[in-house]
Write a structure and sequence with these properties.
By secondary structure, the protein is an all-alpha fold. The protein has one helix and no strands. The radius of gyration is 18 Å and the shape is flat. It starts with a helix and ends in a 21-residue tail after the last helix. The mean pLDDT is 83.
Amino acid sequence: MLALSTVGVYLIILVFEGLIHYRNLNSGTSEPYDESKSKVWTTFTDVQ
């Protein structure tokens, strides 16, 4: 029962956050995701 309620709460949070993000995208207060602006994470082995 605890596992089902945890999954249910998690799904409710995901839906709620998705609706907020969808509303912000439509109103223009949030920019769409642009992959060219994303940072690339590297390990310390790449640094010389």
